[in-house]
Amino acid sequence: MVLIRWLGRHSFCLSRRRRALLLKLMAVTLASLLFCEFLIYYLVIFWCRWPEVGAPARGKREPVLKALFLADTHLLGEITGHWLDKLRREWQMERSFQTALWLLQPEVVFILGDVFDEGKWSSSKAWEEDVARFRKMFRHPPHMQLKVVAGNHDIGFHYQMSMYRVRRFEEVFSSDRLFSWKGVNFVMVNSVALEGDGCGICSQVEAELVEVSRKLNCSREEPDSSQCAGGQRLPVSAPILLQHYPLYRASDANCSGEDAAPPEERNIPFQEKYDVLSREASQKLLWWFRPRLILSGHTHSACEVLHGGSVPEISVPSFSWRNRNNPSFILGSLTSRDYALSKCFLPLEGTVLSTYCGAAGLLVVLTLTGVGRLASPFPSAWTRLRVHRAR
Ligand SMILES: *[C@@H]1O[C@H](CO)[C@@H](O)[C@H](O)[C@H]1NC(C)=O
Ligand SMILES: *[C@@H]1O[C@H](CO)[C@@H](O)[C@H](O)[C@H]1NC(C)=O
């Protein structure tokens, strides 16, 4: 009788300790998940601010457009993408994007191409699935605009590009080449089609760009020529070019900053029409549009280049952790005359991984000490119990 009562009390004590240990383990696991998968995005993006754009001219404040630029999201496809990789990367991008929208409230978001990894060869069913996931990840309130330019992974490199792929892309993301808001003109260039070999798609895209150039010229110059008659006048402002391929540059040798290409890759010469646009196409864009700023993607690394001594181009790094440890996006405060840009880094993947490693370590320590404590007060109780049961 005494023995039974003693055993009962002892096992109650054991299970209480065991429950406390379990609770502790669960709390550590939950806290690290909550931090790494949710809170960290708020903590990091919270520090990003819209840059201040130049002082108002004679007290007259121009409207400022708040635009967010990102590039190369590469949503993985069904052929080469591993499901876990896909799940992880897409969750990270969804959280980053949604957190940025919530904290920063941009008016327009531009994605500079390579939204999908496998748009270049995906079946129509896989394409539909990719698009549905894209819409979920990059969902946004109706008053915010989302604009996407085509990249080589969306419609294929020049030799893979087909009317079918271009059309299905434009059905989802619109085929507008020109976008004006608050006095700012954006030209969205399908840079994959600037091969310059007169292919069907290429000639069509060039013709559209020439038409946009004409409209912009009409807004900038005295519209004396008959060409400018009719049609809506655009705001008088040099445009901002948005495209996937950067304009021609020999290499990334002159790029600097913490998210530029790694030093061992910087001097590798770029191939025209593959890494960057051809010299000819680049020159054409500069002549046609006389832009005040160019933003491009494709290289996955950051860079700032000055074309012709006056036109700056910003290479926007990839937004996916699959391509780099420190993804980012660009915040732009734009007026018709002026602009200011700043970069907002997302959480480092390294930080997330080390937090998880730390949590795993803590779990191991808690378990070991906990199990030790469970067994320690009556070292022989277990053995006695077991012997008892065995009989
Ligand atoms: C617009 O003006 C620029 C600069 O004068 C010129 O290079 C370009 O060809 C013009 N565009 C059109 C369509 O005429
Ligand atoms: C780097 O800058 C220097 C000086 O402006 C220039 O001469 C050189 O061509 C640039 N290199 C590349 C690869 O752009």
Automatic annotation (TrEMBL):
Q: Which residues cross the membrane?
A: 21-47
How is this protein positioned relative to the membrane? Answer: Multi-pass membrane protein
Q: Which residues form the Calcineurin-like phosphoesterase domain?
A: 66-301
Under CDD domains, the record lists: MPP_MPPE1 (cd08165)
Q: Which GO terms describe its molecular function?
A: metal ion binding; phosphoric diester hydrolase activity
The answer to whether UniProt assigns keyword Transport to this entry is yes
Per the UniProt entry, what are the Gene Ontology biological process annotations, in alphabetical order?
endoplasmic reticulum to Golgi vesicle-mediated transport; GPI anchor biosynthetic process
Can you quote a single GO CC term? Answer: nucleoplasm
- Cofactor(s) essential for the protein: Mn(2+)
Subcellular localization, per the record? Endoplasmic reticulum-Golgi intermediate compartment membrane
Chief localization class? endoplasmic reticulum
Report the domain of life of the source organism.
Eukaryota
| UniProt KW Transferase keyword | no
Kindly give the PANTHER family that the UniProt entry links to this protein: METALLO PHOSPHOESTERASE RELATED, METALLOPHOSPHOESTERASE 1
Q: What does this protein do?
A: Metallophosphoesterase that catalyzes the removal of a side-chain ethanolamine-phosphate (EtNP) from the second mannose of the GPI-anchor protein intermediate. Participates in the glycan remodeling steps of GPI-anchor maturation to allow an efficient transport of GPI-anchor proteins from the endoplasmic reticulum to the Golgi.
Please state which protein family the record places this protein in: Belongs to the metallophosphoesterase superfamily. MPPE1 family.
Q: What is this protein called?
A: Metallophosphoesterase 1
Q: Which organism is it from?
A: Sciurus vulgaris
